[in-house]
Design a protein that fits this description.
Helices cover 26% and strands 46% of the residues. The chain has 156 residues and is α+β, with helices and mostly antiparallel strands. It has a domain of 109 residues: 2-Layer Sandwich (Alpha-D-Glucose-1,6-Bisphosphate, Chain A, domain 4). It has a seven-stranded antiparallel sheet with strand order 1-7-6-5-4-3-2. A hairpin with a 5-residue loop joins β3 and β4. α1 crosses α2 and α2 packs across α3. The longest helix has 18 residues.
């Protein structure tokens, strides 16, 4: 039996914020803030290790209701405070590698607020492919980030 080849894709998502770039960057850098907007599997119970620094490692492990374990391992390659984050991550399901990604997140001043550009380049492994789902999940997380940083949310 031959192993299917890897498949490659990418996507870019932009979001605008009513807060300055430093506030958006901080929502990525602070582990408690990150959990509020980025964890799409909170209902399944998760384990996290967070080390936000160049060459720092992050682990996010979720046990799904059906007993399968999903593990995301992340390595930060480049962090420029308030400007840029570059990281790579892989996703495994029950130790089976599904994908490997390189992500660049950039923060720009935009009037009185910020514009964030999220670029992800993916390699899907061994026949796995879920681009539409991955894009949707990433968009939903970034939408939660916009809500978290909106002036009305922060005032409550």
């Amino acid at each position: 039996m031959t192993t299917p080849p890897s498949a490659h894709t990418d996507f870019v998502i932009e979001r605008r914020f009513a807060v300055p770039p430093g506030a958006v960057f901080q929502a990525w850098a602070d582990p408690q803030a990150r959990r509020l907007w980025s964890d799409c599997h909170g209902e399944c119970g998760s384990e996290q290790r967070f080390d936000f620094r160049p060459m720092g490692h992050e682990t996010h492990r979720v046990v799904h209701a059906d007993g399968r374990t999903q593990t995301i391992e992340r390595v930060y390659f480049d962090i420029v405070v308030d400007r840029r984050i570059v990281f790579g991550y892989d996703i495994r399901l029950d130790a089976r590698p599904l994908s490997v990604s390189l992500v660049t997140v950039e923060f720009f001043a935009a009037g009185r607020g910020a514009r964030m550009v999220y670029t992800e380049q993916l390699a899907y492994l061994d026949g796995h492919e879920d681009r539409a789902r991955r894009l949707q999940g990433t968009q939903e997380g970034l939408d939660r980030l916009v809500l978290l940083l909106s002036p009305q949310e922060r005032a409550s």
